[in-house]
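Question: does this match?
>
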Amino acid sequence: MTAAESGETPQAAPTVVLLDYGAGNIRSAQRALEHVGADVTVTADPKLAVEADGLVVPGVGAFASCMEGLREVSAPRVIGQRLAGGRPVLGICVGFQVMFERGVEHGVDAEGMGEWPGVVDKLRAPVLPHMGWNTVDVAPGSTLFAGIDPAERFYFVHSYGVRSWEMEEDPYIAAPLVSWAEHGGERFVAAVENGPLWATQFHPEKSGEAGLALLRNWVGTLG
């Protein structure tokens, strides 16, 4: 029996803004989010980005150019406003990296969002870029990876990453959940869950069923 047949009001799909700031092809992320039940709008409109149930910050390319594009659409203000109100934000790839204090790429030292301390710099693995499928060492208690087999692999494509987690623990605030991955003997942060701010170095929208399960977990927290 459907909700309409039972007289129940169908539950509206969570609204998600996929932030469009010129950071590359984001249609695969849109399709993946819609597949897991989100009502997705691709826009740079700050008002819509603030008001949506969830905001996704994608990113492909250089750290500095992504930050420039984000500033042009008032993303630092929008993200700060959302996080201050406890409203979920999900960063993907460079959208993950820009949440840190700084990024050093091709000799350019660029300021990031500063939501987390730390520097994004070049991995020291013998083969770069790190491109392809890799497992993730998931933080205990993770909601983002809930129900996903630990042996599942996710799709990475990057040469830069965060090689250490520098945030000091606050006894009055729940500690962030930090998940890690390894490439060429180099360990780096693969995902962070920190209050309303979650982010992944890998591309869940390109990670098959495991990526869809992860996005479904995030969308399931919205409302």
